[in-house]
Design brief:
- About 75% of the residues lie in helices and about 10% in strands.
- It is mainly alpha-helical.
- The chain has a two-stranded antiparallel sheet.
- It is rod-shaped and about 135 Å long.
Length: about 170
């Protein structure tokens, strides 16, 4: 998109540079010597040339060239800003993806730890070494960890989808 607009801007600058020739007009009249015209007698026979200059167009041309250059510079600055914004957005989405991935790794390990503790606590509960309240706390903790892990998995998939949409490639 920006490349096409940049090319159009360069073409416009070249057109404005060539418009320096627009104020000048070259004309000629050819009157053969062998004809006799009684209705409109001409004193000049043969080839006649003339040059005219449109002073208004001549004075407008430098401003138009300068305006075209400024529009092209503005377009280039706009393109650079868009690329910086795109780069920033890609980085933000990539960092969100990395954050969700790392958090998922930590939560997965934490869930495995809690599950192993739960197995130990279950055996202790069956031996009546701990109370039902303590065993229920472990079960609630597993449920909470599992729910949080599912939320982070959803965030990871969402961050991945946003990043893939912006980059245009599968990760």
């Amino acid at each position: 998109y920006y490349q096409a607009r940049s090319n159009a801007g360069r073409i416009n600058i070249n057109q404005q540079k060539l418009s320096w020739l627009a104020p000048f007009t070259l004309s000629y009249v050819y009157q053969p010597n062998s004809t006799i015209n009684f209705v409109d007698p001409n004193l000049f026979n043969g080839m006649q040339a003339g040059v005219t200059l449109n002073l208004g167009l001549l004075l407008q041309t430098p401003g138009k060239v300068k305006q075209s250059r400024q529009e092209h510079l503005s377009l280039l600055a706009e393109e650079e800003e868009a690329l910086l914004n795109l780069e920033t957005e890609v980085k933000n989405r990539y960092f969100a993806y990395l954050k969700a991935r790392k958090l998922l790794e930590v939560l997965t390990q934490s869930l495995l730890d809690v599950q192993s503790i739960e197995k130990e606590q279950k055996i202790r509960y069956e031996r009546s070494e701990i109370t039902l309240k303590d065993y229920n706390e472990i079960l609630v903790s597993i449920s909470t960890q599992t729910t949080y892990k599912l939320q982070v998995e959803a965030e990871l998939l969402s961050a991945k989808a946003f990043l893939e949409a912006l980059v245009g490639k599968k990760l």
